[in-house]
Amino acid sequence: MVDAAVLRGQLAALGVRPGDLLVVKASLSALGPVEGGAKGLLRALLDAVGPDGTLVTLAFVDCYPVPLSREHARLVTDERTPSYAGALANVMVGHPAMRRSRHPIQKFCAIGRLAAELVDNHTPASPAYDVLRRVAELGGRHLKLGPDERVPGFGTTHVAQNLLGFRQRLPRRGVMFRDETGAVRLFEANWAGGCSRGFNSFIPLYERGGAFVGRGRVGDAEASITGMNRTLAIDLEVLARDPRFFFCNDPSCYSCRVSWDFSPRTPRWYAARYVLPPLRALGLGRLRRALRGNRG
Ligand SMILES: [Zn+2]
């Protein structure tokens, strides 16, 4: 069990300083047992950046196929909607001093000196990842607690994809939200993003480009701090030259192989390769046997 004092010491050794502006992402399971769990970790992080510091995290919420089902149409997202991003994001959402994006889906959550400035203007009209662009502009850093395989990316690659105008063809998805007049309306996802499993390809370039500010361990987890203006500059430079650089190496990844304007495959190819064969394998004879159950 890592107690609060040890946690504070490890964060300081990693390079977290009072006054820091940090985008934090953590895998609690990678950290191992921490005193107070996710709440204890948040307390230690807030202590480490102090009253002049700011913590930001991605606290995005689920969205659903459009047109929405009757069940999904009843859900109206607001600043307290739980995030799928994990325990730390959700204890931040529950914190009395938190500010949360008014963006209906890509909801950032922030606590500290710059929280309101960063998050209050993140509205349905804003670019989905704009808070991260502004953090980079303000000299903020990305704090990752957990291995790169489990916590992919360094907070800037989706920003770069959108700044470069990359486009994705995706099925329509959305949520209901309350607009500034109080009316409940549909908001549809309208940005590029998707698969981040290939983002670790940037790591050697970040190393060469001096983006790593700190590396070490927090609890049982590998931890790193990267300068977001550096990683964003590298992302922009690399992706302007080679838009496919971020693709993961899973041949069945629809997001990478099909969805982008510059993806190598078509939806028809994908269906023939990955959708129809399993359907065929579930042919009538098999289906009949499956329904009959295991009666020998
Ligand atoms: Zn992928």
Provide a quick synopsis of the model.
The protein is 37% helix and 18% strand. It has 296 residues and is of the alpha/beta class.
Helix and strand succession? HEHHEEHEHEEHHEHEEHEEHHHH
Q: How much helix is in the residues?
A: 25-40%
Low-confidence parts: none
Strand segment tally: 11
Structural class: alpha/beta
Description:
The chain contains 13 helices and 11 strands. The chain has 296 residues and is an alpha/beta fold. The protein has one domain (4-250). A 7-stranded mixed beta sheet has the order 5-6-2-1-7-11-10, sandwiched between helices. Strands 3, 4, 8 and 9 form a 4-stranded mixed beta sheet that branches. Helix 3 (37-49) crosses helix 5 (87-93) and helix 8 (157-163) crosses helix 10. The structure holds zinc ion. Zinc ion is lined by residues 195, 197-198, 248, 250, 253, 255-256.
